[in-house]
Specification:
351 residues, alpha/beta, Rossmann fold, Dihydrodipicolinate Reductase, domain 2, 2 domains, seven-stranded parallel β-sheet, seven-stranded mixed β-sheet, 11 helices, globular
Length: 351
């Protein structure tokens, strides 16, 4: 039995890790840490988790004594504890942004934090880095926005079909974390759509890093807050190179658009044919948030081309599962040699 420790288990991602790991036949949660809630039963903070007999503890990272440690800690905190955990021989899956960037200067620029413990990590998106994850000691779990955006556009970059991608993402309020803020205060976000960090969101360069590794594609990203609890719906816009010479005053023939749409869908199906958690929707079906809620699945669809050669691809994920804790467990399964789908293969909750 693989022993698990969760550092910072009182937040939303910590709660999701506990919920999903409780059903894992090959893993046992040995400890869940929290300084604030030391000695408190887990169900007092996560009231949906009943009968686990788990208690929050204040344990030093070097004393965790676990095979796999999930660090569900804020940005800037993980770098202070990850080196200690690795030193005692545990493998680490970090859910913060501290180890996601290949270039530390890029991290310091976008997070405005001095990195005190650079360590080589594997970017934990299994659909790209499966082989490396299997051998990794430290995995950097991707951000929620990048997960949906990268999966929606990976085939376009790999096949060098586009030069520029505009990513427009809508996220639920749980993406702001368990601690309330003015932006996420109910009267401010209910019955509202709030664009924020229009060109300066820290997930933008993370998306660029992964998609730019395959081609010279340039990514522009803008997030929006919408009044739902869970989920990220991403709409990606790009102009296909094959239509670059199109005169904007002349509409592209319908038969050419339909033929190209079918070709694009085939490319996506080929890319993800062996991926257990990516589902390609064809026949014009559009992904919805309530189809993936509570699940580790990413639904990708749309695939329409307008008269100007603009391709629209849409993805939907649960930001707390595929965008965080479910993906972290997927990474653990790979690192430990378990079946990839173990404990995270449940379908979404709809309605």
């Amino acid at each position: 039995m693989t022993e698990i420790a969760i550092v910072g288990g009182s937040g939303y991602t910590g709660g999701e890790l506990i919920r999903l790991l409780q059903k894992h036949p090959d893993a046992e949660i040995k400890s869940i840490t929290s300084r604030q809630y030391n000695g408190t039963p887990v169900d007092k903070i996560h009231p949906h988790i009943r009968g686990s007999n788990l208690i929050f503890e204040d344990i030093s990272p070097k004393n965790l004594d676990a095979d796999i440690v999930f660090t569900a800690t804020p940005h800037g905190v993980s770098m202070n504890i990850v080196p200690e955990i690795l030193e005692v021989g545990s493998k680490v899956i970090d859910l913060s942004g501290d180890y996601r960037f290949n270039d530390i200067d890029n991290y310091e620029k976008w997070y405005n934090i001095k990195h005190i413990a650079p360590i080589e990590a594997v970017y934990g998106l299994p659909e790209i880095h499966r082989k490396e994850i299997k051998k990794a000691k430290l995995v950097a779990n991707p951000g929620c926005f990048p997960t949906g955006a990268i999966l929606a556009n990976l085939p376009l970059s790999k096949e060098e079909l586009v030069e520029n991608i505009i990513v427009d993402s809508k996220t639920g309020v749980s993406g702001g974390g368990v601690n309330p803020s003015t932006v996420f205060h109910y009267p401010n976000c209910a019955d509202n759509v709030v664009p924020y960090n229009l060109t300066r969101h820290r997930h933008g360069p993370e998306i660029q890093q992964e998609l730019g590794a395959f081609s010279n594609v340039k990514v522009s990203f803008t997030p929006h807050l919408v009044p739902v609890i869970r989920g990220i719906l991403t709409t990606s816009h790009s102009f296909l190179k094959s239509f670059n010479d199109n005169n904007n005053n002349v509409s592209i023939a319908d038969n050419l658009k339909e033929e190209t749409e079918k070709e694009i869908i085939d490319i996506y199906k080929k890319q993800y044919k062996n991926e257990p958690f990516v589902k390609i929707l064809d026949d014009g079906e559009i992904p919805t948030l309530n189809s993936v809620r509570g699940s580790n699945f990413a639904h990708i669809g749309g695939f329409e081309i307008d008269d100007n050669g603009r391709l629209i691809v849409i993805s939907a994920i649960d930001n707390l599962v595929k965008g965080a804790s479910g993906q972290a467990i997927h990474n653990m399964n790979l690192m430990c040699g378990f079946k990839e789908e173990t404990a995270i293969d449940g379908y979404g909750m709809r309605p």
